[in-house]
């Protein structure tokens, strides 16, 4: 009788423990579902400034980097077309809102909700401010005084500033000398494509030129701060950031530009929509995907890839002339991008085979 009682007690205890384990499992799954909904479908832990660099990279990661360069290189000719009949503030606000609306529709189809907590929107707002709103406004103002070629060269220093900030301050990923050499080669290639004559005009409008450099520092900081948003789906971050940026600039556009009095051309309207969907929506989404997969320094290499692609699009869409040093500049740019993106061990193996 005692043996049967002891066995019955043990069976009851085991049954009780089993129920507790099942209840805990169901509770954990419920919490995870709530977390996925809040963060746009992603439950990965946040990447802090001291997190390690991304691990093994495949060809798909570099394909994303090339796609990002293609998206953002189209901003040069499309902006030139749009600004022909639309003022800068209205143009930036319109393309941001078009991009945000497009992404919100896609998120609705995917069944992902935009976060509503204050913490998330503070992150989105700060990221958009340092990555788009302030830099674009500053560069647009500076271009009233600085030639376009000089602006391109100055704006191409973003990878260098990102390297220096990573090496001296954040140290969130390895900042090897090879990557710094790559940044210098990429800048040299940019100068070669734009033309050495561009260097002769530096110093004439020193305040505007310093403003462009400060804007590039802001871009570099945005690529580092953007790692803090890795908790969220890249499309959620892009939609939230663009919605904030477009909404903030809308009252300014209404007061300063009086959009209802404008008469934009059909080409300008098409450029605004295409740039909003292609350059802003897809571009910003790819940007956050590359940050998570490739890290800060490698993602910044797309800034050099944009130059030859942007020149090619300008030749095709705007009928501009082909730069005389395009081949040399393209060679330097590709060498710089290779140094910044290809792992050192892989690069050494390739060089031994030559």
Helix and strand topology:
Elements: H1 2-38, H2 59-73, H3 75-82, H4 88-110, H5 118-142, H6 148-155, H7 158-170, H8 177-194, H9 206-225, H10 234-256, H11 266-294, H12 296-300, H13 302-318, H14 326-341, H15 344-353
Explain what the structure shows.
With 354 residues, the chain is mostly helical. The protein has one domain (68-353). Helix content is 75%, strand content 0%. It is globular.
Gist of the model:
By secondary structure, the chain is an all-alpha fold. Helix content is 75%, strand content 0%.
Question: What summary fits the major beta sheet?
Answer: none
Shape, please? globular
The number of helical segments is 15
Question: Please, what is the oligomeric state?
Answer: single chain
Q: How many E strands?
A: 0
Query: How far do the termini sit from each other?
Result: 85 Å
Q: In which range does the helix fraction lie? A: over 70%
Structural class: mainly alpha
Low-confidence stretches: 30-53
Percentage of β-strand residues: under 5%
Key attributes of the depicted protein:
354 residues; mainly alpha; globular
């Amino acid at each position: 009788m005692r043996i049967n009682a002891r066995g019955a007690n043990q069976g009851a205890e085991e049954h009780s423990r089993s129920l507790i384990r099942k209840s805990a499992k169901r509770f954990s799954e419920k919490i995870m579902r709530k977390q996925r909904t809040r963060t746009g479908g992603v439950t990965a832990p946040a990447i802090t400034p001291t997190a390690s660099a991304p691990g093994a990279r495949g060809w798909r990661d570099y394909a994303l980097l090339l796609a990002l360069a293609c998206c953002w290189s189209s901003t040069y000719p499309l902006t030139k077309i749009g600004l022909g009949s639309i003022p800068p503030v209205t143009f930036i606000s319109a393309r941001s809102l078009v991009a945000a609306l497009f992404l919100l529709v896609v998120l609705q189809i995917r069944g992902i909700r935009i976060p509503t907590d204050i913490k998330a929107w503070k992150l989105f707002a700060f990221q958009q401010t340092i990555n788009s709103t302030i830099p674009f406004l500053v560069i647009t103002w500076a271009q009233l005084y600085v030639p376009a070629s000089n602006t391109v060269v100055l704006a191409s220093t973003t990878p260098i500033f990102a390297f220096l900030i990573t090496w001296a301050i954040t140290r969130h990923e390895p900042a090897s000398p090879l990557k710094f050499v790559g940044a210098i080669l990429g800048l040299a290639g940019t100068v070669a494509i734009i033309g050495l004559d561009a260097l002769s005009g530096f110093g004439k409008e020193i305040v505007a030129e310093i403003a462009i450099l400060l804007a590039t520092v802001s871009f570099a900081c945005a690529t580092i701060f953007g790692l803090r948003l890795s908790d969220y789906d890249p499309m959620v971050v892009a939609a939230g950031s663009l919605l904030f940026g477009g909404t903030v600039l809308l009252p300014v556009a209404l007061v300063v530009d009086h959009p209802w009095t404008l008469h934009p051309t059909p080409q300008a309207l098409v450029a605004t929509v295409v740039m909003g969907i292609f350059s802003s929506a897809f571009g910003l989404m790819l940007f956050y995907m590359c940050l998570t997969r490739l890290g800060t320094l490698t993602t910044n290499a797309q800034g050099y890839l944009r130059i030859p692609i942007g020149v090619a699009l300008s030749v095709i869409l705007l009928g501009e002339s082909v730069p005389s040093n395009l081949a040399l500049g393209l060679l330097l740019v590709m060498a710089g991008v290779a140094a910044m993106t290809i792992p050192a061990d892989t690069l050494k193996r390739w060089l031994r085979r030559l």
